[in-house]
TrEMBL record:
<dbReference type="GO" id="GO:0008757">
    <property type="term" value="F:S-adenosylmethionine-dependent methyltransferase activity"/>
</dbReference>
<comment type="pathway">
    <text>Lipid metabolism.</text>
</comment>
<feature type="domain" description="Methyltransferase type 11">
    <location>
        <begin position="27"/>
        <end position="126"/>
    </location>
</feature>
<comment type="pathway">
    <text>Phospholipid metabolism.</text>
</comment>
<protein>
    <submittedName>
        <fullName>SAM-dependent methyltransferase, type 11 family</fullName>
    </submittedName>
</protein>
<keyword id="KW-0808">Transferase</keyword>
<dbReference type="InterPro" id="IPR029063">
    <property type="entry name" value="SAM-dependent_MTases_sf"/>
</dbReference>
<keyword id="KW-0489">Methyltransferase</keyword>
<keyword id="KW-0830">Ubiquinone</keyword>
<dbReference type="Pfam" id="PF08241">
    <property type="entry name" value="Methyltransf_11"/>
</dbReference>
<dbReference type="InterPro" id="IPR013216">
    <property type="entry name" value="Methyltransf_11"/>
</dbReference>
<dbReference type="GO" id="GO:0032259">
    <property type="term" value="P:methylation"/>
</dbReference>
Length: 234
């Protein structure tokens, strides 16, 4: 399946903005295949710890690169479901959470854990879908209907995202709209699947998708895509 909107362009942008340095310890939250972790490790010398509900994909990717062991990208791979983060306080200089936060059911608890494990002056990088304000009144009645079947179901409005981040103790230091990358992603989807309809049908849980996913599919809801950096200040 195609990767997150913007690919590694937004990873680059966040890295430059946050001023991470070689040797910094960073968490890749929801690491998946380990694309972000490999990039940060190979390009910048970052010590990346990966966490995901399943670490098999990251391990397999490392093996395909000829290492035979997960430590080539991640000095540590942890299998856990967010927000269950088995790390000490003030552990990480940064957290990258790319196209993952919209899938998290317990968002407030997740941000509380992110805040706890970040060092003072550490940065949380979120890149994800969001619901433009003009659609919020139409979709609020359907939000929280049940477990998310896709990232569309868990997307938030900008104001709601700001509030939940600030409630967790963060200061928002960067907000950028990168919705243009969704058009690139749509083109990639058509190339790989033959049509957008075939892509929607291939999504996990497509047969029982929620109302917001259906609205996206029919074009009555058009999501945005943003990059957000939230900083832990003391």
């Amino acid at each position: 399946m195609p990767g997150p909107g913007g690919g590694l362009h937004l990873t680059d942008r966040a890295f430059d903005f946050c001023g991470f340095a070689a040797g910094d310890r960073v968490l890749d939250a929801g690491c998946g295949y380990g694309v972000t972790g490999r990039y940060l490790s190979d390009e910048f010398g970052i010590r990346v710890v990966g966490i995901d509900i399943s670490i098999d994909r990251a391990v397999d990717r490392n093996r395909r690169h000829g290492t035979g062991r997960p430590s080539s990208v991640f000095p540590e791979l942890v299998q856990a479901r967010i927000p269950g983060l088995p790390f000490e306080e003030d552990t990480f200089k940064g957290i990258f959470c790319e196209c993952v936060f919209s899938l998290v059911q317990e968002k407030s608890s997740c941000l509380g854990e992110f805040y706890r494990i970040l060092r003072p002056d550490g940065h949380l990088v979120l890149s994800d879908l969001y619901i433009p304000e003009k659609y919020l009144s139409a979709v609020r009645q359907y939000q929280g209907e049940g477990p998310f079947t896709s990232c569309m179901e868990g997307a938030m409005g900008i104001i709601d995202l700001i509030r939940i981040l600030e409630s967790a103790g963060f200061t928002i230091t960067l907000m950028e709209d990168h919705t243009r990358f969704l058009k690139q992603l749509a083109g990639q989807i058509v190339f790989e699947y033959g049509s957008l309809d075939r892509f929607w049908d291939a999504l996990p849980g497509a047969a029982g998708c929620g109302r917001l996913t259906h609205m996206c599919r029919t074009g009555s809801l058009k999501l945005g895509y943003g990059l957000f950096v939230a900083t832990k200040y003391h």
